[in-house]
């Protein structure tokens, strides 16, 4: 399995609900944040293209939860490329809690996005930009190793 892009996050009280655990929807929000930080770190030319009308539109996302999280838990969210077609990208996410005893898998998710170009009031699918393809390939999930 190739390496994953890693986004490190410390849970805050802002992420929790009245019971004190992390509100489930935050996991989906963190997928988006991880994806955005990936773009900033690995494909800054794509960030500039947003001003020219490029959009990366989420078409599907999900998350499977294994354990609860609480304020001040430290997370590593690992993102890998699952599939890449002409205009769509499928990503997988693993949420790992870091502790003294090592790491614990907390949740697993996925997200599919489409590359679109704004044309007035409408959007049209466009091919995944080459800079983004190149950046994603280094984090491609290798099914031979699984």
UniProtKB/TrEMBL annotation:
UniProt cross-references to SUPFAM superfamilies, sorted A to Z: Thioesterase/thiol ester dehydrase-isomerase
UniProt keyword terms in alphabetical order: Hydrolase
Domain of life, per lineage: Bacteria
InterPro entries: 4-hydroxybenzoyl-CoA_TE (IPR050563), HotDog_dom_sf (IPR029069), YbgC/YbaW (IPR006684)
UniProt key word Hydrolase: yes
GO MF annotations in UniProt: fatty acyl-CoA hydrolase activity
Statement: the UniProt record of this protein carries the keyword Hydrolase: yes
PANTHER family to which the protein is assigned, alphabetical: 4-HYDROXYBENZOYL-COA THIOESTERASE FAMILY MEMBER (PTHR31793), NOVEL THIOESTERASE SUPERFAMILY DOMAIN AND SAPOSIN A-TYPE DOMAIN CONTAINING PROTEIN (0610012H03RIK) (PTHR31793:SF27)
Similarity comment text for this entry: Belongs to the 4-hydroxybenzoyl-CoA thioesterase family.
Name listed for the protein in its UniProt record: 4-hydroxybenzoyl-CoA thioesterase
Species of the source: Dictyobacter aurantiacus
């Amino acid at each position: 399995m190739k390496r994953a892009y890693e986004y490190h996050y410390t849970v805050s009280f802002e992420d929790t609900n009245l019971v004190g655990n992390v509100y489930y929807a935050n996991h989906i929000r963190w997928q988006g944040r991880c994806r955005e930080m990936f773009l900033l770190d690995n494909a800054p030319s794509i960030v500039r293209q947003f001003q020219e009308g490029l959009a990366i539109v989420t078409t599907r996302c999900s998350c499977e939860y294994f354990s609860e999280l609480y304020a001040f838990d430290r997370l590593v969210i690992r993102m890998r490329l699952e599939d890449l077609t002409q205009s769509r990208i499928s990503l997988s996410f693993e949420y790992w809690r870091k502790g003294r005893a090592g790491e614990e898998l907390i949740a697993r998710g996925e997200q599919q996005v489409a590359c679109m170009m704004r044309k007035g009031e409408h959007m049209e699918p466009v091919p995944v930009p080459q800079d983004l393809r190149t950046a994603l390939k280094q984090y491609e999930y290798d099914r031979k190793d699984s």
